[in-house]
Amino acid sequence: MKRLSILFTSLLLCAGTAMAAVNIIPKPTSVVEKEGEFVFTKGFTIGYSDASLEPAATYLQEVLENETGFRFKTKLGKGKVQLSLVLPDENDESYELVCDKKGVLITAHSYRGIINGIATLRQLMPIKCRRNYCMFGGFHKFYWGIPSVTIKDAPNFHWRGLMLDPVRHFFSVEETKRLLDQMALYKLNKFHWHLSDNEGFRMEVKAYPELTGDSMAWRRFNSHDRQCLDRAAKENNPAMLIPWKFFKEVEGFGELYGGYYTQDEIRDVVKYAAVRGIDVIPEIDMPGHNGSACWCYRWLSCTQDGREPLCLGRNSTIEFAEKVYDEVFQLFPYEYVSIGGDEVNRRRWSECSECKKRIESEGLKDVSELQAWFTKKMEKYFNAHGRRILGWDEILEGGLSKTATVHWWRGDHPDVTQKATAMGNEVVLCPFTFLYFDYAQDDNTLRHIYDGDIVPVDLTPEQLKLIKGMQANIWCERIPTEARMQWMVFPRALALAEKAWTPRSEQSWDDFFPRLQAHLKRLDAMGIQYRPLQTKRP
Ligand code: ACM
Ligand code: ZN
């Protein structure tokens, strides 16, 4: 009888502790599953082998504590979950994760590798805790276990990003951090932050404080706001409403909408991202898309009437650009800074006597070369400050130095990547034909992204080496809330993550789709308001 009850109890325990499936996105290089699992018990220690891993251990501690409700410790030394740095190489993002019943060991050659291993560990955690029952003892306990497995993994591309536009509609520091957390879960490691545009300047600049003054960083409702509100009413959709938290009473103007990030807030976001292995790539768009700066300082514009683009004939404009980027360099410690450079209304320069004078004195052919002159001048300035310049693909027009990196966004100009790489320039892929996450989605969008040749197929092996990776862009004219952003970004971001991490030869929709379905439950548990896979009735 006793033997029978032991058998019965173990069957119940087994039922309660069924192994969680290994469903990792992006797909790792190799996964070997084994019998058994590692059970998280409260109070265990996360050990780390090197003091530089302390922020990673604390981040993992926070994640695990939030998920399990248990408390864990961290320490330099050995732990049940062990983060181990070996043969350090900053550029190597690979990692190995070994889990068995004794514990979890993540080994990597860099901080980023460890962070990638932590992302995988986050995905190995069951979505919900389980309970063990023992009917006879009336005993039950909460139960967190992860499957025994060995995972070896490395990314195909080092640039795996998302660009957010908090200019058209603003996102708080907390909302931005939540997006960074979600990016880290899927090994997206570049956060491109579009901090200025016609509708506002979102970065505090100490040299030009008026840029983020009450009547500059806040504005009256514009046509985008009205479109959002119309949709909110028509669709009965609160995610399209303009959040009240971003309104402010401004003397002489009434209630205005907007916001900006102080330099302390920017440092805080940069630090938060760095812990999660994410570089923040700032963009201050010049010489076009900066109507707010031109409106604030009328002398920046050719006709001094506040209309963009910047007047490139005036030395005071160049001084303005240098002083703004000086502060960008202080706030963002990363190699790349984006100058934007897209959609410039160059015709205004051909009507400006000062710009015409510059064209003549610099021996330039036309207004395209004037933009190229400005970009090259800024590039020298960036380089002198130890930075590399990055810009939208229009910076190719009028000539470009080889060391500039290009964001290919104009999907209807398929030759851009071919041309840029033939000239020796590096390219980050974000063609709107696949990777504009503000574009409308239907039930086929996800598959279109997943199956698409985002990397052009006509590149030689030498040109392919110049593809740094890919990112999706989230322009926010019609994205007024975090909930709407999540609807537009998820689950598309999971397809992007796999396109950027997993080699093309290993990408398979049939393999991805069931993993994706499992991940939707994880997104549910995280409270992410993603777009369901099917919105039409079958
Ligand atoms: C862009 O979408 N104008 C880069
Ligand atoms: Zn001018």
CATH topology of the largest domain: TIM Barrel
Mean pLDDT: 93
Shape: globular
- Tell me the Rg in angstroms: 26 Å
Give an overview in words:
This protein is of the alpha/beta class. The protein folds into two domains: 2-153, Chitobiase, domain 2; 159-294 and 310-345 and 367-525, Glycosidases (TIM Barrel), CATH 3.20.20. It has 19 helices and 21 strands. The chain has helices at 2-16, 54-68, 111-124, 173-185, 214-217, 223-234, 263-275, 291-296, 315-331, 347-350, 353-361, 367-384, 415-422, 432-435, 445-451, 461-464, 482-489, 492-501, 509-525, and strands spanning 30-40, 45-48, 73-76, 81-85, 95-100, 103-108, 130-134, 139-153, 159-164, 190-194, 196-197, 200-201, 218-219, 247-250, 254-258, 279-283, 336-340, 388-392, 405-408, 426-429, 467-474. Strands 1, 2, 3, 4, 5, 6, 7 and 8 form an eight-stranded mixed β-sheet that branches. It has an eight-stranded parallel β-sheet with strand order 16-10-9-21-20-19-18-17. Helix 2 (54-68) packs parallel to helix 3 and helix 4 (173-185) runs parallel beside helix 7. The radius of gyration is 26 Å and the shape is globular. The model is unreliable at 1-19 (pLDDT under 50). The protein binds acetamide and zinc ion.
